[in-house]
Amino acid sequence: MSSDPMVCVKDLEEYALAHMGRNERGFSSNGAGECQTLQENEAAFKRLRLRPRFLRDVSSRDLSTTLLGRAVDMPIGVSPMGALGLFSPYGDLGAAKAAARFKTCMISSTSSNSTLEDIMKSSPESLKWFQLYVRPDRELTKALVQRVERAGYRALVVTVDVACVGRRYQELRYRFKLPPHLKPLNLGKNVVQDHARNRGHDPALSWKDVAWLRSICSLPIILKGILTAEDARLAVQHGVDGILVSNHGGRQLDGVPATIEALPEIVQAAGDKLEVYIDGGVRTGTDVLKALALGARAVFVGRPVIWGLCYDGEEGVAKVLNILKEELSLAMALSGCTRLADIVPAMVVRASQYSRM
Predict the structure, then answer these.
(1) What is the sign, positive or negative, of the torsion defined by CA atoms of 216, 217, 223, 229?
(2) Looking at 19, 181, 201, 248, which residue is catalytic?
(3) How far apart (Å, rounded) are the C-alpha atoms in residues 230 and 211?
(4) CA distance linking residue 300 with residue 288, whole number of Å
(5) Is 238 a residue of the active site?
(6) Which residue in 27, 60, 270, 337 has a CA-CA distance of 20 to 30 Å to 166?
(7) What are 109-161's pLDDT values in tens digits?
(8) CA nearest neighbour of 296 among 268, 321, 324, 322
(9) Residues 6 or more apart from 342 whose CB is under 8 A from it?
């Protein structure tokens, strides 16, 4: 029986980085500025300690939950990412099919290399949300939102942290650009050119646009990129349905908190008025457990999906999701949890608390 060299997400990362070209590696691995936030997204999880409970019957574990009322088999989904075609010819379709196999949620990107309709058709039975960049041309945005709703997506995930594109040294140094055959196919020809020149984002985006989006579609609205309690309270006031705590994978404003650091204040500010999710830095099942304990309803993963695609297309993404699912189930068993409701804030403390004892 042959051995499996890919037993954890880190193995897949090492494989992918060793097999990518400079263009792909620079695009997928870089962050903004000096990459402080990029590095802290992972490091901050390691500063948290778990407090397990024992002598509980954990012979059976249930990882299922609901996202905005829709059932999923596990609280681990796929974050929105553009240009997945860089890493595998299966790209967005491979990621969507893998997520469907695990009956979990995929967030499809405005900047995907497949149309939103083709992504939905690849696995129509599974839960999909759509990540939206609100464009300066509101009529173009409206037409895109209407396509999203017609195609059967179940929520809009509105990115709020890209008033301007972050300064990413690696992309500037190597003059990154997409190969000619890869285009954001959800956008028209002229819009694609603007998108490539980073002119597709709107620095005038404001809270009034949340109300405008409400007026043009009936889908739930999730804001992606909220990092403070102040903005979380405003999201509640504006009737938002969810917040995805995210710092764009450390690719926008360098020096902002790691997402796991920002999570508790946002959960507290949101209360029971909306659902809170998180992405950024999740690499292990214990990372998932820590995020759930601090109040996230689910986590989403981005770069690990890229590494899976690079390794083996759809099967590689399925491997990533399976690793995280199995590691979460094991972490629950070793912590005394049989269902997600058993995962509570008292299970997590900062490592510094132990050093003071």
Answers:
(1) positive
(2) 248
(3) 18
(4) 9
(5) no
(6) 270
(7) 999 999 999 999 999 999 999 999 999 999 999 999 999 999 999 999 999 99
(8) 268
(9) 332, 336
| Sequence letter at residue 129 | W
8 Å CB contact between 346 and 65: no
For the chain, the C-alpha Rg in angstroms (whole number) is 19
Task: Please report the DSSP string for 299-347 in residue order.
Answer: EEESHHHHHHHHHHHHHHHHHHHHHHHHHHHHHHHHHT-SBGGG--GGG
- Cα-Cα-Cα-Cα torsion 191, 226, 282, 345, nearest 10 degrees, comes to -160
Half-sphere exposure of 301 (CA within 13 A, CB side): 32
Query: Given a cut of 80, is residue 193 above it in pLDDT?
Result: no
Q: Which two tokens stand for residue 69?
A: 């009322």
**Residues 37, 44: Cα–Cα separation, whole Å:** 10
Contact 325, 298 (CB under 8 A): no
For residue 195, pLDDT beyond 80: no
The pLDDT tens digits of the residues spanning 59-116 come to 999 999 999 999 999 999 999 999 999 999 999 999 999 999 999 999 999 999 999 9
